[in-house]
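Dear colleague,

As promised, here are the two records you asked about, laid out in our usual form so they can be pasted straight into your sheet.

NAME FIELD: protein one
SEQUENCE, THEN STRUCTURE:
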Amino acid sequence: MVERELTVGSSMLERPVALLVQTAGRFVSELHLQMDNKNINLKSIMGVISIGTLAGNKVKITAEGRDESEACNTIAEFLS
Protein backbone atom coordinates (compact mmCIF):
# COMPACT_ATOMS: atom_id res chain seq x y z
CA MET A 1 0.00 0.00 0.00
CA VAL A 2 1.18 3.50 -0.86
CA GLU A 3 -0.01 6.60 1.02
CA ARG A 4 0.53 10.25 0.32
CA GLU A 5 -0.66 13.38 2.12
CA LEU A 6 -1.06 16.73 0.39
CA THR A 7 -3.02 19.95 0.29
CA VAL A 8 -5.31 20.06 -2.72
CA GLY A 9 -4.51 22.93 -5.07
CA SER A 10 -6.91 25.61 -6.24
CA SER A 11 -6.93 24.10 -9.74
CA MET A 12 -9.57 21.65 -8.46
CA LEU A 13 -12.03 24.53 -8.47
CA GLU A 14 -12.02 24.45 -12.29
CA ARG A 15 -11.57 20.72 -12.87
CA PRO A 16 -14.65 18.56 -13.09
CA VAL A 17 -15.01 15.82 -10.49
CA ALA A 18 -15.77 13.35 -13.29
CA LEU A 19 -12.25 13.86 -14.64
CA LEU A 20 -10.78 12.86 -11.26
CA VAL A 21 -12.93 9.70 -11.23
CA GLN A 22 -11.94 8.89 -14.84
CA THR A 23 -8.27 9.33 -13.98
CA ALA A 24 -8.61 6.99 -10.99
CA GLY A 25 -10.46 4.48 -13.17
CA ARG A 26 -7.42 4.04 -15.42
CA PHE A 27 -5.67 2.08 -12.67
CA VAL A 28 -6.14 -1.46 -11.41
CA SER A 29 -5.29 -0.46 -7.84
CA GLU A 30 -7.90 0.50 -5.30
CA LEU A 31 -7.72 4.24 -4.70
CA HIS A 32 -9.14 6.02 -1.68
CA LEU A 33 -9.11 9.59 -0.46
CA GLN A 34 -9.41 10.55 3.20
CA MET A 35 -10.53 13.99 4.29
CA ASP A 36 -12.29 15.17 7.47
CA ASN A 37 -12.81 11.63 8.81
CA LYS A 38 -14.36 10.53 5.50
CA ASN A 39 -12.83 7.77 3.40
CA ILE A 40 -14.11 7.61 -0.18
CA ASN A 41 -13.44 5.44 -3.19
CA LEU A 42 -11.89 7.65 -5.89
CA LYS A 43 -13.48 5.50 -8.59
CA SER A 44 -16.98 6.37 -7.34
CA ILE A 45 -18.46 9.60 -8.71
CA MET A 46 -21.03 9.69 -5.91
CA GLY A 47 -18.31 9.18 -3.31
CA VAL A 48 -16.21 12.04 -4.67
CA ILE A 49 -19.23 14.34 -4.91
CA SER A 50 -20.23 13.50 -1.33
CA ILE A 51 -16.93 14.72 0.09
CA GLY A 52 -17.55 18.29 -1.07
CA THR A 53 -14.99 20.89 -2.08
CA LEU A 54 -11.47 19.53 -2.19
CA ALA A 55 -9.55 22.71 -3.03
CA GLY A 56 -7.43 23.97 -0.15
CA ASN A 57 -8.02 20.93 2.07
CA LYS A 58 -5.48 18.45 3.41
CA VAL A 59 -6.13 14.94 2.12
CA LYS A 60 -4.54 11.51 2.25
CA ILE A 61 -4.48 9.32 -0.84
CA THR A 62 -4.06 5.58 -0.48
CA ALA A 63 -3.48 3.13 -3.30
CA GLU A 64 -3.25 -0.64 -3.12
CA GLY A 65 -2.60 -2.95 -6.06
CA ARG A 66 -0.07 -3.79 -8.71
CA ASP A 67 0.15 -0.22 -10.09
CA GLU A 68 -0.19 1.53 -6.72
CA SER A 69 2.87 3.80 -7.01
CA GLU A 70 1.91 5.13 -10.42
CA ALA A 71 -1.73 5.49 -9.35
CA CYS A 72 -0.90 7.41 -6.19
CA ASN A 73 1.54 9.72 -7.97
CA THR A 74 -0.90 10.43 -10.80
CA ILE A 75 -3.77 11.28 -8.45
CA ALA A 76 -1.49 13.43 -6.29
CA GLU A 77 -0.34 15.32 -9.37
CA PHE A 78 -3.93 15.75 -10.52
CA LEU A 79 -4.96 17.20 -7.16
CA SER A 80 -1.95 19.52 -6.79
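NAME FIELD: protein two
SEQUENCE, THEN STRUCTURE:
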Amino acid sequence: MQVAILMIHVAIAIALVVLILLQQGKGAEAGAAFGGGASQTVFGSRGSGSFLSRTTAVLAAAFFATSLTLAYFASQAGEAPEAGIPDARLIEQQSGLPTLDDEARDVDNTAPVLEESGG
Protein backbone atom coordinates (compact mmCIF):
# COMPACT_ATOMS: atom_id res chain seq x y z
CA MET A 1 0.00 0.00 0.00
CA GLN A 2 2.79 2.39 0.93
CA VAL A 3 4.63 1.67 -2.33
CA ALA A 4 1.49 2.35 -4.35
CA ILE A 5 0.94 5.69 -2.62
CA LEU A 6 4.60 6.57 -3.15
CA MET A 7 4.29 5.83 -6.88
CA ILE A 8 1.16 7.99 -7.09
CA HIS A 9 2.99 10.73 -5.16
CA VAL A 10 5.88 10.73 -7.65
CA ALA A 11 3.49 10.76 -10.62
CA ILE A 12 1.61 13.73 -9.15
CA ALA A 13 4.90 15.56 -8.55
CA ILE A 14 5.95 15.07 -12.18
CA ALA A 15 2.52 16.17 -13.43
CA LEU A 16 2.69 19.28 -11.24
CA VAL A 17 6.05 20.26 -12.66
CA VAL A 18 4.79 19.81 -16.22
CA LEU A 19 1.58 21.76 -15.60
CA ILE A 20 3.39 24.63 -13.92
CA LEU A 21 5.85 24.87 -16.79
CA LEU A 22 2.99 24.88 -19.33
CA GLN A 23 1.27 27.87 -17.75
CA GLN A 24 1.99 31.35 -19.01
CA GLY A 25 3.16 34.07 -16.70
CA LYS A 26 1.06 37.12 -15.79
CA GLY A 27 3.05 39.33 -18.18
CA ALA A 28 2.05 37.25 -21.20
CA GLU A 29 -1.60 38.26 -20.86
CA ALA A 30 -0.92 41.86 -21.93
CA GLY A 31 0.37 40.72 -25.31
CA ALA A 32 -2.56 38.36 -25.78
CA ALA A 33 -5.00 41.28 -25.32
CA PHE A 34 -3.89 42.73 -28.66
CA GLY A 35 -4.63 39.51 -30.52
CA GLY A 36 -1.22 37.90 -30.35
CA GLY A 37 -1.53 34.12 -30.10
CA ALA A 38 -5.10 33.95 -28.83
CA SER A 39 -6.20 31.65 -31.64
CA GLN A 40 -3.23 29.32 -31.15
CA THR A 41 -4.25 27.98 -27.75
CA VAL A 42 -5.62 24.46 -27.49
CA PHE A 43 -8.49 25.35 -25.14
CA GLY A 44 -9.58 28.61 -26.80
CA SER A 45 -8.71 32.17 -25.93
CA ARG A 46 -9.69 31.94 -22.25
CA GLY A 47 -9.94 28.24 -21.50
CA SER A 48 -6.34 27.23 -21.04
CA GLY A 49 -5.69 29.47 -18.06
CA SER A 50 -8.66 28.30 -16.04
CA PHE A 51 -8.24 24.64 -17.04
CA LEU A 52 -4.53 24.57 -16.16
CA SER A 53 -5.10 26.52 -12.95
CA ARG A 54 -7.85 24.16 -11.79
CA THR A 55 -5.85 21.07 -12.69
CA THR A 56 -2.81 22.44 -10.87
CA ALA A 57 -4.92 23.16 -7.78
CA VAL A 58 -6.38 19.63 -7.79
CA LEU A 59 -2.95 18.06 -8.23
CA ALA A 60 -1.50 20.26 -5.48
CA ALA A 61 -4.23 19.09 -3.10
CA ALA A 62 -3.58 15.46 -4.06
CA PHE A 63 0.17 15.99 -3.55
CA PHE A 64 -0.52 17.40 -0.09
CA ALA A 65 -2.77 14.45 0.79
CA THR A 66 -0.25 11.85 -0.37
CA SER A 67 2.50 13.68 1.53
CA LEU A 68 0.49 13.50 4.74
CA THR A 69 -0.32 9.84 4.13
CA LEU A 70 3.32 8.94 3.57
CA ALA A 71 4.31 10.88 6.69
CA TYR A 72 1.72 8.92 8.68
CA PHE A 73 3.09 5.61 7.38
CA ALA A 74 6.63 6.69 8.23
CA SER A 75 5.63 7.61 11.79
CA GLN A 76 3.92 4.24 12.31
CA ALA A 77 6.99 2.26 11.22
CA GLY A 78 8.66 1.91 14.59
CA GLU A 79 11.54 -0.34 13.66
CA ALA A 80 14.32 -0.02 11.13
CA PRO A 81 13.66 -1.37 7.65
CA GLU A 82 14.91 -4.86 6.86
CA ALA A 83 16.67 -3.70 3.72
CA GLY A 84 19.34 -1.06 3.86
CA ILE A 85 22.72 -0.55 5.43
CA PRO A 86 23.19 -2.70 8.54
CA ASP A 87 25.10 -1.58 11.61
CA ALA A 88 28.89 -2.00 11.38
CA ARG A 89 29.09 -3.90 14.68
CA LEU A 90 26.53 -6.40 13.43
CA ILE A 91 28.62 -7.05 10.32
CA GLU A 92 31.76 -7.53 12.40
CA GLN A 93 30.02 -9.97 14.73
CA GLN A 94 28.60 -12.01 11.86
CA SER A 95 31.89 -12.14 9.96
CA GLY A 96 33.84 -13.58 12.86
CA LEU A 97 36.54 -10.93 12.54
CA PRO A 98 37.71 -9.21 15.70
CA THR A 99 35.66 -6.15 16.49
CA LEU A 100 37.07 -2.75 17.27
CA ASP A 101 36.44 -3.34 20.98
CA ASP A 102 38.42 -6.60 20.88
CA GLU A 103 41.35 -4.91 19.14
CA ALA A 104 41.34 -2.09 21.69
CA ARG A 105 41.71 -4.61 24.53
CA ASP A 106 44.64 -6.37 22.82
CA VAL A 107 46.66 -3.21 22.21
CA ASP A 108 49.19 -2.24 24.85
CA ASN A 109 48.45 1.37 25.73
CA THR A 110 51.95 2.19 26.97
CA ALA A 111 54.14 4.32 24.77
CA PRO A 112 57.28 2.69 23.42
CA VAL A 113 60.51 3.64 25.11
CA LEU A 114 63.32 4.62 22.80
CA GLU A 115 66.66 3.39 23.99
CA GLU A 116 69.74 5.32 23.16
CA SER A 117 72.53 3.27 21.79
CA GLY A 118 75.86 4.46 23.05
CA GLY A 119 78.19 3.91 20.22
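A couple of things worth noting about protein two: The chain is about 60% helix and 0% strand. The mean pLDDT is 75.

Best,
R.
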